[in-house]
Amino acid sequence: MKLIIKFNLVLSLTSAIGLVAAGLISSTVLEEHADHEVIEHARMMMESAMAVRNYTIKEIRPLLEQLDHAEFLPQAVPSYAATQNFKTLQQDNPDYSYKEAVLNPTNPRDKATDWESDIIIQFRNHADIDEIVGERETPTGTSLYLARPIKITNKACLSCHSTVDQAPEKMVKLYGPANGFGWKHNEVVGSQIINVPASVAKEKAQRAFSTFMLSLAAIFITLAVFINFMLRSLITKRIKNIAEIADQISKGETDVAELDTQGNDEVAELARSFKRMRVSLDKAMKLLDE
After folding, report:
1. How many Cα atoms sit within 13 Å of 148 on the Cβ side?
2. 220 and 122 share a domain?
């Protein structure tokens, strides 16, 4: 088996091992990075929802209340404004969903499910926790979620949610007097929750993994071609030249080309050694002829 073939077999084996090792390591790292990227995107959307809530409380509600004190306008409700704003964001991010889940909501649409209630209770029991990130199994697959507590820090919110008597008459007429009341100042009443299918992160990780592995394979192939070219020009071609000259001399031919002995590498040293042997052989043959 030729030296170049042996070398390429070793190179192919080490490249395959390197690709497998890189694939195993990068797969885990890229999946974690994709999950982190998806959650960070959810955080930005959550911050947008919070900004809309605060803007509604501080700027929009006072203006709407001046128009008609007896009129109940959903646009003055922070949760309504945040949800409507998220629907706009959802046009470019259809995989993300947003809900303001509440244990005792005014609007039945906001009623917390069992797993959402568990998150709200965690926020209630652990006041030092201001964010929960996790995943859960759904009928359509694994889902990632980001949750933050809804806490009544603004006493103005109690004008609608403390007692039925203090609530706007039209709000009570619209939603009924049974739900959304009895809230207290500084109480955690619900949670803002953003959901996104885990498949979104996996698809991101898969695309990044495919790009990385194809790029790595291309680099290995390019290196293999370059190394083979250098091996042929610097080693195998010169050794083959020495072998051809040695074969000619072994057949008794005297009119052979001189070897190129320039250089400081091992092949050049071999050529110089062969040249010295050839000179010694020529001297020995002359002595025998005498």
Report:
1. 13
2. no
